[in-house]
Amino acid sequence: MKVALLGCGVVGSQVIRLLHEQADDLAARVGAPLELAGVAVRRLGRKRDIDVDPALLTTDAEALVTRDDIDIVIEVIGGIEPARSLILAALSRGKSVVTANKALLAEDGSTLHEAARTGNGDLYFEASVAGAIPLLRPLRESLAGDRVKRVLGIVNGTTNYILDKMDSTGASFTDALEEAQTLGYAEADPTADVEGFDAAAKAAILAGLAFHSRVRADEVHREGITEITATDVASAKAMGYVIKLLAICARSDDGRSFGVRVHPAMIPRSHPLAGVREAYNAVFVEAESAGQLMFYGKGAGGAPTASAVLGDLVAVGRNRLAGTRGPEESTYADLAVHPMGETVTRCHVALDVADKPGVLAQVAELFAKHDVSIQTVRQEGRGDDAQLVIVTHRATDAALSATMAGLRELDIVRAVASVMRVEGDEQG
């Protein structure tokens, strides 16, 4: 069975290594040898992390994926183009595709799935979310007989490393980011990670599988971590919380819609996700019959991601030998994605206020005006350092946003120092 590989970077080189080192085992698991028939690269003379037979290298990726003798195409180049065109070219010719391309799946997954269906090939993408963690296949297959209510987790290792260092050492966001870049956990341009774009693409894929509906990345509410300060982290720590960038996909109470969001949130230190350190990922899945399941492991890196790619490769190879296909995209539910304003959540709010009588009464009156009840409140500091720290009960995000806007108009409020959502208390 002949395999074409698109990309020979960090992940692609590890795919080649595993194909060579585990050739006999893979052949036994698939039922036929897997032969690497070609590797598409941008530059032929570039130094690579692994030795590759020069005869396999080509810069003509389209010619490679459309060769008649190719059975399976592995795409690990990332990005939208030329990845989309190459995958569609392969699928339209009846070849099966294994991809790790979360951005493409979140932007135009429906087109890829339709091409796989009409071309009678497989489209597998376990490596697109959470690296080596087997997460998508359980959602796609193992829990197909259950009703998933919520998916909540940490799906970006870069941001988790940064927030973990801020929590454990008191470092600023800038210092923690620089350390992550030095260690290779963050790119030179970390925007996709720290602004939440990477996690949003993964959340779209997770929500689509969990709720049997199509979800695009632009339908995911997204907030990054760049505004989180060492003071925010210290305040959360003092209350027994830790700040994490969470991807949250939750079905509405009436089951007719669901929300998909990525944003930083405070979670109790008793929550299992609070103990996810450094660049690791972890995801909770809550289903009606199965209850709560937790998936944990290395969410990125060459070898972990290649492990997921090889797992899909074995599954696809078995299907081709048997003359069958894996599960198709399931969108029968066709549920709507409800706006963030309808999402019910809780907030931790820090207000810089004037140090005089009646401040708390005016603040409480404004919260009540917008039907946001207060769970706890405490006053810190005196004079110019006076601050109110409030934790609300659950309310819609629209009500909480209206409350924050109103607070900024009050004369007694010098500044809304920070606003942080609170999640996970029901798990703690």
From TrEMBL:
Catalyzes the conversion of L-aspartate-beta-semialdehyde (L-Asa) to L-homoserine (L-Hse), the third step in the biosynthesis of threonine and methionine from aspartate. The active site is at K202 (proton donor). GO terms for molecular function: homoserine dehydrogenase activity; metal ion binding; NADP binding. It comes from the Bacteria. NADP(+) binds at L6, G7, C8, G9, V10, V11, G12, S13. InterPro entries: ACT-like_dom_sf (IPR045865), ACT_dom (IPR002912), Asp/hSer_DH_NAD-bd (IPR005106), HDH (IPR016204), HDH_cat (IPR001342), HDH_CS (IPR019811), NAD(P)-bd_dom_sf (IPR036291). Pathway: Amino-acid biosynthesis; L-threonine biosynthesis; L-threonine from L-aspartate: step 3/5; Amino-acid biosynthesis; L-methionine biosynthesis via de novo pathway; L-homoserine from L-aspartate: step 3/3. Its cofactor is a metal cation. GO terms for biological process: methionine biosynthetic process; threonine biosynthetic process. Residues 348-421 form the ACT domain. PANTHER family: HOMOSERINE DEHYDROGENASE (PTHR43331:SF1). This is Homoserine dehydrogenase. Pfam families: ACT (PF01842), Homoserine_dh (PF00742), NAD_binding_3 (PF03447). Belongs to the homoserine dehydrogenase family. Keywords: Amino-acid biosynthesis, Metal-binding, Methionine biosynthesis, NAD, NADP, Oxidoreductase, Sodium, Threonine biosynthesis. The keyword Amino-acid biosynthesis applies. It catalyses: L-homoserine + NADP(+) = L-aspartate 4-semialdehyde + NADPH + H(+); L-homoserine + NAD(+) = L-aspartate 4-semialdehyde + NADH + H(+). L-homoserine binds at E187. NADPH binds at K102. Its EC number is 1.1.1.3.
